[in-house]
Design a protein that fits this description.
By secondary structure, the chain is an alpha/beta fold. The chain has 3 domains: 62 residues, no CATH class; 373 residues, Alkaline Phosphatase, subunit A (3-Layer(aba) Sandwich), CATH 3.40.720; 81 residues, Arylsulfatase, C-terminal domain (2-Layer Sandwich), CATH 3.30.1120.10. 33% of the residues lie in helices and 17% in strands. The protein is built from 18 helices and 22 strands. An 8-stranded mixed sheet has the order 7-6-10-3-12-16-4-17, sandwiched between helices. It has a 4-stranded antiparallel sheet with strand order 19-20-21-22, with helices on one face. Strand 1 and strand 2 form a beta hairpin. Helix 3 packs across helix 13 and helix 9 packs parallel to helix 13. The structure holds calcium ion (CA). The site of calcium ion (CA) has 6 residues, from loops.
Length: 526
């Protein structure tokens, strides 16, 4: 390659060269801005040498712009923090744990609504559920937000190729496996809807309510191999996208949404064999527990009669099946992570691993989701950024799923759209002690709850008219002792109540520049 003998030409009136940032090429590191005056004092030889470096530098910046970080976004359905890397004593999750070793593990990450549809609409648009107006399942985001720029769409608008494999927006599981569910086609260039043996052999699934699988405890220790299951087919499709992207060199936003461990808990038999049912302990509520919590909280955990009356033996089977499904899902995540490394994409791809909300497995006497307890609201979250200095560390800094959008935009050098309500978690990824937010907000069925470093505080109906709950995590991490009626907690409750109401007001504010279509009155009754 030949270089010109003159300094780069500058526009008339320009009084300095543009800053060229930090250029790392071999052992040469340059940073800064030079003025015309400084340039005119250089000898010709120095000018020539400088020109070479500037051209090389601009070329490097150009090349970096062409090679922005890619995003691999992996999300399980209905997965709580029952994972090895979160300290669970039984659950085997070696692949997710491996990702945690090269990323940051968030111990206090929370969904904004503990139900698939509202949670997914919220994080995919970067807005709270009271802003998206999506508070239930089975709504397509464009029904409420016709022109919103979703997270992956924002990447598409910035030159990324984007694809979805499996469940990203709401899907009825297992009913919609194999079709688009309530997807948003504008969010992707390409999509794959995997469908496996778990779907075609649904008739073999055991269910507490025969014939119902999605919202009912149900499971199957399946015959056959991983490869026949929906999520393994999804992992293969995700790998195929990675192979394509490794060749075409364009930046990508690739989303892999697994269907497990959502009910029915289906996994090949070998995963069930990993868990000894006799060693599983089933959580039990103390006598009179339900009288200690407000009526809406009681309803949230005691509305499914078949679960409330579940026998100890069936509960153990359900928990074993849930763990088996987690380990099966973990293996599929591992296939994709292996492909990312094999194809040389790990070095320039941000990886996010999470779930759409948490899940109860018998805690508070409840199974599944839709409560304002830690079990349903807390989600696993691991973010791995190439070259991060904090790899392998954990943070207790509160994080919300609504933060994904601004975080990924910042990590990839994209200007976040004005409508986003979340906060970028990049400061935490740089330093696990950073705390860009001091609470996490979750809402469910007319209640709102915040989790601070020490407390969970919940108000049901307007300003707590239907009851309040206060849990002190320093003494009660299981949230079994409601302190909201204790006189000695008066000041704490006043402080947390003010904090919660400020958060609710923010979460209800109209997002700038986003047209919204309110639900029809008839629809609200559903
Ligand atoms: Ca879900």
């Amino acid at each position: 390659m030949r270089f010109s003998n003159s300094v780069p030409r500058l526009k008339p009136g320009a009084n300095c060269l543009r800053p060229f940032g930090t250029i790392e090429s071999g052992n040469i590191i340059l940073a800064g801005v030079l003025t015309f005056g400084e340039l005119s004092l250089m000898s010709e030889n120095v000018k020539t040498a400088f020109a070479i470096l500037v051209i090389a530098g601009l070329a490097t910046v150009h090349s970096e712009a062409e090679h922005k970080f890619n995003v691999l976004f992996i999300i399980c359905d209905d997965l709580n923090c029952d994972l090895g890397s979160y300290g669970h004593p039984m659950v085997k999750s070696p692949n997710i744990d491996r990702l945690a070793e090269r990323g940051m593990l968030f111990k206090r990450a929370y969904c904004q609504y503990p139900l698939c549809g509202p949670s997914r609409a919220s994080f995919m648009t970067g807005m709270y559920p009271d802003q998206t107006l999506i508070h239930r399942n089975a709504i397509r985001i464009r029904e409420r937000l016709p022109d919103v720029v979703s997270m992956s769409q924002h990447f598409m608008n910035n030159g990324y190729q984007s694809a979805r494999v499996g469940k990203l927006y709401h899907y009825n599981v297992p009913a919609d496996i194999g079709n688009d569910g309530h997807d948003d086609p504008a969010s992707w260039h390409e999509k794959v809807n995997p469908r496996g043996r778990d779907k075609t052999e649904e008739n073999k699934v055991f269910s507490l309510v025969p014939g119902r699988f999605g919202g009912t405890l149900s499971w199957l220790a399946a015959d056959g191999t991983d490869d026949e299951q929906t999520d393994a087919i999804g992992a293969e499709a995700t790998t195929s996208f990675l192979e394509k992207y490794s060749k075409n060199k364009k930046p990508f936003f690739l989303a892999f949404g697994l269907y497990r461990p959502h009910t029915p808990y289906v996994a090949p038999k070998k995963y069930f064999d990993m868990y000894d049912r006799t060693k599983i302990s089933v959580p039990k509520n103390p006598e009179g527990y339900l009288d200690t919590i407000p009526l809406p909280a009681r309803r949230s955990i005691a509305s499914k009669k078949e679960q409330v009356s579940i026998t100890d033996d069936l509960a153990r089977q359900a928990i074993q099946a849930y763990y088996a499904s987690i380990t099966f899902a973990d293996a599929q995540v591992g296939r994709v992570l292996n492909a990312l490394e094999r194809l040389g994409l790990a070095k320039n791809t941000v990886v996010v691993f999470t779930s759409d909300h948490g899940y109860h497995m018998g805690e508070h006497g409840h199974y599944m989701k839709t409560t304002l307890f830690e079990n349903a609201d807390r989600v696993p979250l691991i973010i791995s950024v190439p070259g991060m200095k904090t790899a392998g560390r954990t943070t207790i800094s509160p994080a919300e799923m609504v933060d994904f959008y601004p975080t990924l935009a910042e990590l990839c050098g994209l200007k976040p759209p004005a409508h986003l309500s979340g906060i970028s978690l990049k400061p935490v990824l740089d330093d696990e002690s950073a705390q860009p937010r001091n609470s996490a907000l979750t809402q469910n069925a007319g209640g709102y709850s915040i989790r601070t470093d020490r407390y969970r505080y919940t108000e049901w109906s307007n300003n707590g008219a239907a009851g309040t709950e206060l849990y002190d995590h320093s003494t009660d991490p299981q949230e079994m002792k409601n302190l909201s009626n204790r006189p000695e907690q008066k000041e704490t409750i006043e402080r947390l109540s003010m904090q919660l109401r400020e958060r609710i007001a923010q979460a209800k504010s109209a997002p700038p520049g986003v047209e919204r279509i309110a639900a029809k009155p008839r629809e609200k009754k559903k």
